[in-house]
Write a sequence for this structure.
């Protein structure tokens, strides 16, 4: 049979081939989703797949916040996560809200005729919407957990029945993958957390047992009380950072994005760690031009303080910390690159690849200073939620430099 013969026998042969290709892609994508447990990466794959399978200009995911009942944008193929964080879609009167309430597909071939379309979304995404297809994301128990949307069908055609079937099938796999990722993160993180809690709890138990002895010398009693205090503080830090990370990994943490002056923020952080640095004779050098970035000021401050505190703790006596800010372009968008360099002992190459993992501590320094092993993991989640990156460059004996990037607005006068 020649290539032209199927077309003679089946006039819609090209359409059949396209449909088969789409089903093959659905199978490939579902297999990929089944083994993904990183929340942000998972959502990114889903929205890209939605655009591909429906041949759409853009797509997005909205999820219901179980704590507040709000419907929020979590990921869009045409926007970074930080641009979406403040967009709350009302349940009443919105297209996505209707899909959540009714648990049914909503197809709008001409968006201008629908009163439920939000101008706020169009202003935020800077994409003019002509048509839209929205399907519910349903859990295994049939509960609607969010909405998967495709908008602006490419070419002159409108969305067809095949598009509805493809997006609905993708939504079925996507909802299962989102639920599995949430469960995996909770169980995996809880196991790690329990393991980490055992060390300070054992220390507290041993200390209290020793304190009950009547023959304990006074100087030993003072040492044990100091141990109790330090281990209690460690437990408080650990549980606090655990809650921060749990919110970030599950996508429940919300960024409060505003225009932030990097110069003011970094100088403020330097003032906070200056007493620690002075105590060890460490000098802090700064090269901070005033850039405005789009960021959550409190969370970025948390990142900077973590990096500066580490630069003090892991530095040499009378060492140097160097803070630099430089502009750069990434994907034709302006970013500010912040670098925090120290003159410490450096980090082994093997350890560098694990630095941003939960509870990881560099083996050579684990006895040098106490920490929770969560600070850099939290920092990574915060920076990536802003659409930036964070990484380290280090050589043994030559110190370390931590870099991170944030979306820049402009250079301030």
């Amino acid at each position: 049979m020649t290539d032209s013969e199927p077309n003679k026998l089946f006039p819609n042969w090209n359409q059949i081939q396209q449909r088969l290709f789409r089903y093959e892609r659905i199978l490939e994508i579902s297999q990929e989703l089944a083994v993904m447990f990183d929340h942000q990466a998972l959502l990114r794959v889903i929205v890209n797949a939605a655009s591909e399978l429906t041949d759409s200009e853009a797509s997005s995911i909205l999820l219901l916040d179980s704590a507040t009942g709000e419907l929020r944008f979590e990921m869009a193929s045409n926007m970074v996560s930080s641009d979406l964080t403040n967009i709350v879609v009302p349940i009443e009167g919105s297209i996505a809200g209707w899909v959540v309430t009714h648990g049914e597909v909503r197809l709008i071939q001409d968006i201008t005729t629908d009163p439920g379309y939000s101008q706020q979304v169009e202003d935020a995404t800077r994409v003019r919407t002509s048509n839209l297809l929205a399907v519910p994301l349903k859990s295994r128990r049939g509960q609607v957990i969010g909405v998967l949307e495709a908008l602006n069908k490419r070419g002159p055609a409108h969305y067809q029945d095949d598009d509805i079937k493809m997006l609905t099938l993708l939504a079925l796999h996507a909802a299962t993958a989102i639920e599995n990722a949430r469960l995996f993160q909770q169980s995996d993180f809880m196991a790690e957390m329990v393991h980490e809690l055992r060390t300070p709890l054992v220390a507290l138990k041993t200390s209290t047992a020793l304190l009950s002895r009547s023959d304990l010398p006074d100087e030993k009693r003072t040492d044990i009380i100091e141990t109790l205090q330090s281990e209690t503080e460690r437990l408080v830090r650990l549980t606090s950072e655990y809650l921060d990370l749990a919110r970030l990994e599950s996508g429940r943490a919300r960024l409060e994005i505003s225009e932030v002056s990097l110069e003011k923020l970094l100088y403020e952080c330097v003032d906070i760690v200056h007493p620690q640095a002075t105590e060890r004779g460490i000098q802090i050098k700064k090269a901070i031009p005033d850039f405005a970035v789009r960021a959550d000021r409190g969370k970025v401050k948390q990142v900077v303080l973590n990096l500066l505190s580490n630069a003090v703790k892991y530095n040499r006596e009378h060492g140097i910390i160097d803070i630099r800010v430089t502009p750069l372009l990434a994907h034709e968008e302006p970013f500010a690159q912040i670098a925090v360099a120290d003159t410490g002992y450096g980090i082994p190459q093997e350890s560098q690849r694990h630095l941003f993992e939960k509870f990881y501590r560099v083996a050579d320094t684990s006895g040098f200073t106490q920490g929770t092993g969560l600070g850099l993991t939290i920092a990574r989640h915060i920076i990536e939620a802003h659409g930036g990156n964070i990484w380290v460059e280090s050589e043994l004996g030559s110190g370390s430099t931590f870099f991170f990037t944030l979306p820049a607005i402009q250079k301030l006068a």
